[in-house]
Amino acid sequence: MTAFQQIVRGPGRKPHHVVVRQLARGFDAVNAHVWWSHNDHFHGWVLRRLRAARGPAVVVDVGCGAGTLVAALRARGGRVVGIDPDDLMARTAAERFAADDGVTIARTSYFDLARGDGLVPAAGVRGLTMIASFHHLAHERGLEATLEHARALLAPGGRLVVVGLARPSVTADYVVDMVSVVLNPLMGLVKRAQGLTFRRAAPAEAGRNEAGMPVRDPDETYTDVAQAAARVLPGARVRRRLWFRYSLEWTAERSAA
């Protein structure tokens, strides 16, 4: 389901606010001609948030899909591990980086990762990234278990950087979504000038998006995520974002010198 379908129909096909639905319908035809990736848009932000991270020079991208963020991370140097439980995505990413010894792609579950397992160093990782994958993990094991596992995998000074999707539930959520709907085609024009748009294609099969990635609606709200982060990751920063996303970032406490 696309971001605009999510707005029009809502998770579980429950309708959102009528104004949001009308805006989404009105702009959808325009957006089809200037379609751009909301997930890829945040790559620069993710890279910037990792600059101050510490620990072994290994970053794990959880739910790596075809490997677009893995490529951006690899361009910065250091070792990159991309994991995805989906066979198609893992195979696609593995083929992409077959000639790069600095990248490891594994078809595995996030919850099976452990320090010293050959993917994660015994000392933990410098960075853990999740773009549009956090809600899949939360559906599987719950918000707190997902965050607790991230905490366990990070080295002291390592950073968790999440760009996620949440179910709208309060006025602030709808306001940000409405602004995103209005601005989306304008950003699309900017992206087109940069050569970063593409013609929207129909999903190959149900449950996957245009790129073939598995998709599902988020169960949790932004408030749910923020409250869970406050309980599990003291000092975590959670923010609503344009383009139907939120961000979560947290730095693991460094060991005393």
Helix content: 40-55%
> What fraction strand?
15-25%
The protein's oligomeric status is single chain
Strand order of the largest sheet: 3-2-1-4-5-7-6
What is the H/E string?
Answer: HHHHEHEHEEHHEHHEE
Radius of gyration: 18 Å
Q: Tell me the CATH superfamily.
A: Vaccinia Virus protein VP39
The CATH class designation is Alpha Beta
Low-confidence segments, ≥5 residues, pLDDT <50? Answer: 1-15
Q: What is the molecular shape?
A: globular
CATH architecture heading: 3-Layer(aba) Sandwich
- The helix-and-strand class reads alpha/beta
Q: Can you tell me the CATH topology? A: Rossmann fold
Instruction: Count up the domains.
Output: 1
Could you report the average pLDDT, rounded to the nearest whole number?
Answer: 86
Describe the structure.
This protein is of the alpha/beta class. It has a single domain, classed as Vaccinia Virus protein VP39 (Rossmann fold), CATH 3.40.50. It is 40% helix and 17% strand. It has ten helices and seven strands. The protein has helices spanning 3-9, 18-31, 38-41, 43-50, 68-75, 87-96, 134-141, 143-153, 171-193, 222-232, and strands spanning 58-62, 79-83, 103-106, 125-131, 154-164, 237-241, 245-251. It has a seven-stranded mixed β-sheet, with helices on both faces. The longest helix is centred in the last third of the chain and has 23 residues, at 171-193. The chain starts with a helix and ends in a 6-residue tail after the last strand.
